[in-house]
């Protein structure tokens, strides 16, 4: 998230929080695609991490991008920590370890998404390459220890860094050493949100498997295909993971609100200052628990919006749905991730087929799949088959959905070609992570250094 929200409207009751989510309902013709992707900056000389400051640091990249794009700076205590397009059509932000993120504009087609991503990568290379910096498209930092990883000067991350070790063993790794590709999608009603939430929660482990791309940690194989996926198994299970209550046939906005109310907060912002609120839940905040702790210690709608952004389930509900299961990856994967989910969720016939395929899948089965995928990828078992076979069926549904959408580029091609990189995974029977491991044990000669060339932007 590029910029934390400021909205001073007071909250009168829980109904307003439910209504806030329901305001996301949009007619089908207004549905859009918002794609986010993160990448690790590194110095070409030595494949070392890039700090925030200095003449060749991340701040210099942001300042160069600001000058090139004319976007507005996002400041935290006077330091530039991101950029936002003046009309809200996209933003650039920093993750805790310097991961460089584009939060894309809401677009109508995957063709536009791909052009946007290509333009961003071209622009950031133009600024970064004279500084001796390139970017790595992986799901996990392959070389640097946590101690070697830079820390970005962003107030919310200081609060999270103190809090994470109290609630899980992997939170700091998640913050500082992982990258993702994510797509944000719309719904037209509460019922439509429910359908999309349930299908996408059930299929999120498959997404993790297809995009598995983080097999190295601190210069060695880590025994996993998606180290990032494994990290999310013990980051902060109060606010993350697979939400069982969402599997209910009558799940709705109010259920998500009730869950979110009882998750500990991270912060509130008052007069530009971040106040640590990790000791209370949002429900306690609404009951007046911070009345004497912070200025204006009663909750606002801005506080609620920020709180929703600090929840990390596999599919996150805000006024849209966020698909959060995939590892970061190379350019083709940036286009493939939104294509996968748009094909499944934005065409009625495809959504019905995905619902039918997953209708009998139970929470326990999906949880077992989620737990197996980080190690086994598409070879993970499911019932009497493997995820590789499930992937064939799901990709066929997604392809049919994209074909039915019939969004064509100037050359007359529809969006189905963006699934080709995932078709290759299924046809080979090996994930990107397994391909890297094979290279490590053969032509890379037991070194991870070549990954900085072969998977760099």
How would you briefly describe this protein structure?
This protein has 457 residues and is an alpha+beta fold. It is 42% helix and 16% strand.
Write out key terms for the chains shown.
alpha+beta, single chain, 457 residues
Describe the structure.
Pfam families: GCS2. Catalyzes the synthesis of gamma-glutamylcysteine (gamma-GC). Keywords: ATP-binding, Disulfide bond, Glutathione biosynthesis, Ligase, Nucleotide-binding, Transit peptide. The protein has 457 residues and is of the alpha+beta class. The protein has helices at 14-22, 58-69, 110-128, 155-167, 171-177, 190-210, 227-231, 253-261, 282-286, 301-308, 331-345, 348-358, 363-376, 387-405, 420-428, 432-441, 451-454, and strands spanning 33-43, 48-49, 72-76, 79-84, 91-94, 100-103, 133-136, 180-185, 216-217, 220-221, 240-241, 267-270, 273-276, 312-313, 315-317, 321-327, 381-382, 385-386. Helix 6 runs parallel beside helix 13 (363-376). The mean pLDDT is 97.
Would you spell out the secondary-structure blueprint of this structure?
Blueprint: H1 14-22, E1 33-43, E2 48-49, H2 58-69, E3 72-76, E4 79-84, E5 91-94, E6 100-103, H3 110-128, E7 133-136, H4 155-167, H5 171-177, E8 180-185, H6 190-210, E9 216-217, E10 220-221, H7 227-231, E11 240-241, H8 253-261, E12 267-270, E13 273-276, H9 282-286, H10 301-308, E14 312-313, E15 315-317, E16 321-327, H11 331-345, H12 348-358, H13 363-376, E17 381-382, E18 385-386, H14 387-405, H15 420-428, H16 432-441, H17 451-454
Parallel strand pairs: 11-14
Antiparallel strand pairs: 1-2, 1-6, 1-7, 1-8, 3-4, 4-5, 5-6, 8-16, 9-10, 12-13, 15-16, 17-18
Helix pairs in contact: 2-3, 3-11, 6-12, 6-13, 11-14, 12-14
């Amino acid at each position: 998230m590029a910029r934390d929200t400021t909205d001073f409207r007071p909250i009168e009751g829980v109904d307003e929080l439910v209504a806030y989510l329901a305001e996301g309902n949009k007619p089908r013709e207004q549905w859009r695609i918002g794609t986010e992707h993160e990448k690790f900056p590194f110095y070409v000389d030595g494949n070392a991490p890039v700090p925030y400051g200095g003449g060749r640091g991340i701040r210099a990249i942001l300042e160069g991008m600001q000058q090139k794009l004319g976007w507005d700076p996002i400041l935290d205590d006077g330091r530039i920590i991101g950029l936002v397009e003046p009309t809200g059509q996209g933003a650039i932000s920093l993750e805790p370890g310097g991961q460089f993120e584009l939060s894309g504009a809401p677009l109508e087609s995957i063709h536009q998404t791909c052009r946007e991503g290509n333009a961003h990568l071209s622009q950031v290379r133009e600024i970064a390459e004279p500084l001796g910096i390139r970017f790595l498209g992986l799901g996990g930092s392959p070389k640097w220890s946590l101690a070697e990883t830079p820390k970005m000067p962003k107030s919310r991350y200081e609060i999270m860094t103190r809090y994470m070790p109290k609630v899980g063993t992997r939170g700091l790794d998640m913050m500082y050493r992982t990258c993702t590709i994510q797509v944000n999608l719309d719904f037209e009603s509460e019922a439509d949100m429910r359908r999309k939430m349930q299908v996408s929660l059930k299929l999120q482990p498959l997404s993790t498997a297809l995009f598995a791309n983080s097999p190295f940690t601190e210069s060695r194989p880590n025994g996993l295909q998606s180290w990032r996926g494994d990290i999310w198994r013990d980051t902060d299970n109060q606010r993350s993971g697979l939400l069982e209550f969402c599997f209910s046939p009558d799940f709705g906005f109010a259920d998500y609100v009730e869950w979110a109310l009882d998750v500990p907060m991270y912060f509130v912002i008052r007069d530009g200052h971040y106040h640590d609120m990790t000791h209370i839940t949002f429900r306690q905040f609404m009951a007046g628990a911070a009345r004497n702790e912070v200025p204006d210690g009663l909750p606002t709608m801005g506080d609620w919006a920020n709180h929703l952004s600090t929840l990390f389930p596999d599919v996150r509900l805000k006024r849209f749905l966020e698909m959060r299961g995939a590892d970061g990856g190379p350019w083709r994967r940036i286009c493939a991730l939104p294509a996968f989910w748009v094909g499944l969720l934005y065409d009625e016939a495809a959504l019905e087929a995905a619902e039918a395929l997953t209708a009998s899948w139970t929470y326990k089965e999906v949880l077992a799949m989620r737990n197996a995928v980080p190690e086994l990828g598409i070879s993970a078992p499911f019932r009497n088959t493997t995820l590789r076979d499930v992937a064939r069926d799901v990709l066929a549904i997604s392809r049919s959905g994209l074909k039915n959408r019939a969004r064509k580029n100037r050359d007359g091609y529809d969006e189905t070609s963006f699934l080709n990189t995932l078709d290759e995974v299924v046809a080979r029977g090996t994930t990107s992570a397994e391909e890297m491991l094979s290279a490590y044990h053969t032509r890379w000669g037991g070194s991870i250094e070549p990954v900085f060339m072969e998977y760099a932007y």
